[in-house]
Amino acid sequence: MLGIIIAIISGAAMSIQGVFNTRLSDKIGLWQTNVIVQGTAFLCTLILLFTLGKNGNWQEIKSVNKLYLLGGLLGVIITYTVMKTVSSIGPTCGISIILVSQLLTAAIIDAFGLFNTNKIKFSLNEFLGLAIMIIGIIIFKCKK
Hints:
Layout: H1 2-28, H2 30-52, H3 71-89, H4 91-112, H5 124-141
Helix pairs in contact: 1-2, 1-3, 2-3, 3-4, 4-5
Keywords: Membrane, Transmembrane, Transmembrane helix
Pfam families: DMT_YdcZ (PF04657)
InterPro entries: YdcZ
């Protein structure tokens, strides 16, 4: 149950952040906003690391697949693309397409066991669910 609550909070925070970042970028620019977003995230994480992060092991970074160190770069790409999406097609449609893209990407990762994840077999139900979501976006976007 806790995982579901955290996922709901995460989704709400991402949607709100997307709008906040877009409105800020309207005033100060895309890359300036990205610097503020990533900079405040860095500072907040640094504070949390020094106050709560006592159980980590920095020595283990040597054994980590170097590909996994690109999370920060992906954060920059995510911030930029969400702002461009929200500004060009609006929050509801933009976030809907982003969510379908996230789900499809996660399904591919699961189906092929990419990045050391367990393979999860997909059935017709999963593909049908994705198709219904895509159809829902198309219906939502249709004008009368």
